[in-house]
Write a structure and sequence with these properties.
TIM Barrel; alpha/beta; 10 helices
Length: about 300
Amino acid sequence: MSVSLSLSCNPLINRITDPAELVQVCAEEVGVRRLQLTNEFINPVWPVETQARLVRQFTAAAARHGLRATSLMTGAQARLSAMGHPDDGVRRWSEDWFIRFGRIAADLGAASIGSQFAILSWSDWDDPARREARIGQVLDGWCRIWEAVEPFGLKEMFWEQMSIPREFGHTIPATQALTDRIHASGIPLRILLDVDHGDVTSDNPDDTDPFAWIRAFGRDCPILHVKQSSANKGGHWPFVEPYNSTGRIRPAEIVQALTEFGPAEAEVCLELSFREREPADRSVVQILRESVDYWRPHLKV
């Protein structure tokens, strides 16, 4: 069993825009060698020549610093993808977006791309017939995306379970039901577990228990999103004080759970968040470094 640490680039969006600077800061100042890159740094909607130039800049800097992008994930805006939209044209646009995203991932040497499975509107979710139609359409879309990106050399795709029904995966039973449908489709769309997610209104305490999620889905989970978590799911807290004293995420316990219930190789990805306020804005790199150091004794960094 091999467990490594990576960093989601979400907290660095707009704080760093140059790919070479991003690599230098993450490798030398934060101290990580694996990144989950988000689309804000190299966006599929930008001109193709711009994408290619930014890919070259990133890969050249990554080679100098011994760093790599292991996966690509949608950021705060692109996660609101139109995969679950009722209009065929909008859904096809979203599929094309993900195919271009897969091309960027392959050019960077990443193994996978991912996002949420889909997000449905209130009206589509509340009508059982429309909900079922949308789920079928979304799954067909992911199948078409995989058919297009597999030749690029990607290993797999992933979807992140969420915390409300219409964003999918809010409880363990609901996640299992969707996972079964995905497996039946035959595509390698694996689950990215965020152990801070889950429906806080559920009567089942397992649905908000990080370790219950790992026990249930660890075998199919190549990437685990973590942040310091409280019982009320209060925020994407970093792994620093005062959050570590009151939080329930302990690196040794997470690594042990992955060792027991995870795949042969797993990645623990720090997904943290910082407000656009001082002093938080200028403390991001320092706090990321402290969070990485908190995990460093327990896995490969």
